[in-house]
Model the fold of this input.
Amino acid sequence: MVDVLAQCGDDFLVANNVQKGIMQLTDMTRGVALYAEIGPAKEISGGSAANTIAGIAQLGGKTAYVGKVKDDQLGAIFAHDLRAQGAVYETSLAPKNSDAETGRCIVLVTPDGERSLNTYLGWSEFLGPEDIDEQMMAAADWIFLEGYRFDGPDSHAAFAKAIAATKSAGGKVSITLSDPFCIDRHRDAFAQMLQEDVSLLFANRIEITSMYETDDIADAIEKAAQEVEIVVCTDGANGAFVMSGADKWHVPAVPTKVVDATGAGDLFAAGFLWGLTNGYDLELCAHMACVAAAEVISHIGARPEQDLAELFRSHDLM
Done:
């Protein structure tokens, strides 16, 4: 997935029937039409889980990414940028003569820093079990699954194959719920996965309350913790909550000027997973996650521009 980022006012969202602050799926026709309406734009490799993997790789973590792009210009940009961060990316490219294109997301950023996502899935929709390298999955201590990727004819089968290979070798499963509309589309599948396979859940306030069908974030976190070993829930400027068993922590957000909220959750997950896989305690992992999230929302684009390890050290976290 490649992000096409443009700034606009709320009136532009209304005029173009864009719902603010969430992800909306579009077809190729809608994506082209919306692209024609936006002002100057910046193209940056993106994709929720890819941003997380890029963040971990930048920190020196050993990572690999599985996701489908086409052998086209945007696909080449995506693959180059991810590998340049140090991540392994070996998923076969879709052929040049195929009808679908590399997925792209038109990200409209309003003056308050909120981002509204308009996503043409393109080839990312067609990730299937044949794209899952079981040896690679078995070598992982953790796999990180993106809820957005549940939208696709063979996505659930791909997830099941990756989970089985990882767990059979003693690895663990983490997932981000990604979006409330995604939850609505796949509630039963998410519920089964959380109960049977997931050890670490990432969500924000809206997602976790949607998943557990309550308006009370504390109640939702408690319910999740009955099913999942570690629950991590972000709450915007209020920071993040972590719960594992009977243990609970609240970690404040790192103050920063919000320029573009795109990737906040992605880099939060990157900071947390890097800390977890390097032996830090859960509270410290959450502090790292908040620092990483603050960095990415301070500029346009969903990939870090500063050295995250240096930032962690500057906050006395390493």
